[in-house]
């Protein structure tokens, strides 16, 4: 699709604070076959900040439906938790954020939690308590394990599991086609763009060929 595009928000026509918006979120697009994602400029549309922020709330809700559909959390699968780091981080953060509102006996419990962890974590002596709190509050309490899988990676794996060769002997993925078109329709239904090119359609091909 080759056309001149106006530098205005496709939703409201505004020309201030414009941003490029991927109709199909990058978390999915990143994992798509090259023959599909190289076509994604078709689905890269201008939105102003207001319209973008308004739609993002609805897009996030739509992404959450994928948790059940693809049986994988949005944050991915395969995180390894560090429970002791998490407890120390939570206690330190509470003391930094709202120690003046926490009863003294509870403050003492939190301080003991932090110091018990710190004594095992660091052999340095005479570290100021405020510094200890800062370090503990910035701990990473989980990390990606060796089997970690991104939500989008798993979704696209499932959507490309069925491959059909077209009449020219080229691979197509019917489930992926439907998925892209679902996002296009969702964008139309919720943004209701008034300045979208008439050449842009939900059923347009997803392939670069």
Automatic annotation (TrEMBL):
Nuclease among keywords: yes
Keyword Hydrolase part of the UniProt annotation: yes
Protein keywords: Exonuclease, Hydrolase, Nuclease
Molecular function as annotated in GO: exonuclease activity
Protein name: Exonuclease 3'-5' domain-containing protein 2
Species: Choanephora cucurbitarum
Gene for this chain: EXD2
């Amino acid at each position: 699709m080759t056309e001149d595009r106006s530098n205005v928000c496709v939703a409201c026509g505004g020309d201030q604070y414009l941003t490029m918006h991927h109709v199909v979120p990058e978390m999915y697009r990143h994992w798509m076959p090259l023959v599909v994602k190289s076509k994604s400029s078709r689905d890269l549309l201008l939105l102003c900040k207001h319209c973008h922020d308004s739609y993002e709330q609805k897009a996030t809700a739509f992404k959450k439906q994928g948790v059940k559909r693809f049986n994988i959390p949005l944050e991915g699968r395969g995180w390894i938790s560090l429970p002791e780091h998490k407890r120390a981080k939570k206690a330190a953060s509470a003391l930094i954020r709202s120690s003046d509102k926490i009863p003294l006996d509870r403050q003492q419990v939190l301080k003991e939690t932090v110091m018990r962890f710190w004594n095992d974590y660091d052999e340095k002596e005479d570290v100021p308590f405020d510094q200890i709190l800062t370090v503990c509050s910035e701990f990473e309490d989980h990390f990606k394990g060796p089997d970690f899988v991104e939500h989008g990676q798993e979704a696209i794996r499932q959507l490309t599991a069925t491959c059909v060769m077209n009449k020219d002997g080229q691979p197509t993925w019917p489930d992926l086609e439907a998925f892209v078109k679902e996002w296009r329709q969702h964008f139309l239904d919720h943004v209701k763009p008034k300045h979208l090119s008439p050449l842009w359609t939900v059923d347009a091909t997803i392939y670069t060929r």
